[in-house]
Design a protein that fits this description.
Blueprint: H1 2-29, H2 35-54, H3 64-87
C-alpha cells in the first residue's frame, strides 16, 4: 500500500516538474496564443502565481519555475519519508 502511495507521489512530482520545464522551453519558441501553450499555461500558471507574488522577476529572468521545481521535489521527498516512517 505504501509503495503505491509513494509511487503516485513520485509520478505527480515528476509530472509537475516536466510540465514546468516544457512550459519554460516553449515560452522561448512558441507564440503565447498557440493552443498547446495556452492549455499548458492554464495548468502551470496557477501553481507559479503564488511564487511570483512573493519573488518578482529579476530583470528579464523569472526564477519562479526553478523555485517551484525545488519546492515540489522537496515536498515529494518529505511526504514520502513521512509515509514510509509512519507506516513502515
Amino acid at each position: 500500500m505504501i509503495t503505491y502511495l509513494t509511487n503516485i507521489i513520485n509520478i505527480v512530482v515528476q509530472l509537475i516538474t516536466l510540465l514546468v520545464i516544457i512550459k519554460v522551453f516553449l515560452s522561448y519558441f512558441m507564440s503565447p496564443y498557440h493552443p498547446l501553450r495556452l492549455n499548458l499555461d492554464r495548468v502551470v500558471d496557477p501553481i507559479l502565481r503564488p511564487i511570483r507574488n512573493v519573488i518578482p522577476p529579476v530583470g528579464m529572468l523569472d526564477l519562479s519555475p526553478i523555485i517551484l521545481i525545488v519546492i515540489v521535489q522537496i515536498l515529494g521527498r518529505v511526504i514520502n519519508s513521512i509515509l514510509i516512517s509512519t507506516f513502515h
